[in-house]
Amino acid sequence: MAEFQDSGRVEQAVERPGLRLRHRPAWLPPARAAELLAALQAEVPWKQEAITLYGRRHLLPRLTCWMADPGCGYRYSGLANAIEPWSPAAAELREALEQLTGWRFNSLLLNRYRDGRDAMGWHADDEPELDPAAPIASLSLGVPRDFRLRPRPSPRRPSGLTSPAGYSMGLASDGSGCAPFNIALHNGDLLLMEAPTQLWWQHALPKRLRVRQERLNLTFRVVR
Ligand SMILES: O=C(O)CCC(=O)C(=O)O
After folding, report:
1. Does residue 173 belong to any structural domain of this protein?
2. Nearest CA to ligand 1 atom 8
3. 170 assigned to some structural domain
4. Which terminus, N or C, of the chain has the lesser number of Cβ atoms within 10 Å?
5. How far lies 114's CA from each of 94, 108, 187, 199, in Å?
6. What pLDDT score does 161 carry?
7. Confidence category of residue 53, pLDDT binned at 50, 70, 90
8. Which tens digit of pLDDT belongs to each residue from 107-116?
């Protein structure tokens, strides 16, 4: 699948205590990224879901779709996602990511941020149905957006697990510890979030009101 070979940019390892990321800027060349963006905009059955918090219904500030193999259901924020079959573009990307990583991803969450008012709040992808040993492969298409990371305010860790050396739940007044940080994700970028990142860190996609264009994000996952 030559068309998915990355465009030669170097992979960057981003490491902190309890966090392991691999960032491949422009994993997809711009022309291929543009084709995939257009294909996914057209072929995915996008929905704006609603969640209920403290008895009030809130529309999610983005459009979503859950594609997965049969039986790979997934719940987050109390929302049980209907399983959609793999669309042609999503299926091709899954094959390319399997060749790259050696992991067979059986599910995919697609998020469509219509402009900078659409966003995603702080969370970790640590739902019990996800295989905690598998990476999450995140592909960005469209306008660049900031991806924020921070140590978890209260890590949900298996009992008996001790914190990684140097890990802290925030930055101390003397400047030591784990500070939140930002990665700008551009068109065609691939970000692999490897274990044990989801145990110790949260991520978010903040609003950026000056952004007027659309962005898609695809997170390929392994449901066990
Ligand atoms: O849009 C992004 O880059 C983040 C998506 C995300 O946090 C998620 O799917 O869990």
Report:
1. no
2. 219
3. no
4. N
5. 24, 19, 15, 30
6. 83
7. confident
8. 999 999 999 9
Among residues 12, 33, 14, 38, the alpha carbon closest in space to that of 186 is found at 33
Residue 160 lies in a domain: no
CATH number of the domain bearing residue 144: 2.60.120.590
Residue 177, pLDDT score: 73
How far is 30 from 121, CA to CA, in rounded Å?
28
Query: pTM of this prediction?
Result: 0.93
Closest CA to 30 of 7, 9, 5: 7
Domain assignment present for residue 6? The answer is no
DSSP characters over 81-140: PPPBPPPHHHHHHHHHHHHHHS----EEEEEEE-STT--EEEE----TTB-TTS-EEEEE
Structure tokens at 171: 């930055």
Residues within 6 Å of ligand 1 by CB: 109, 111, 120, 125, 138, 147, 185, 203, 205, 217, 219
Question: Could you list the residue range(s) of the whole structural domain that residue 30 is in?
Answer: 12-151+178-221
Pocket test for ligand 1, best of 75, 120, 129, 190 (most atoms within 8 A of CB): 120
Ligand 1 center to residue 217 CA distance, Å? 6
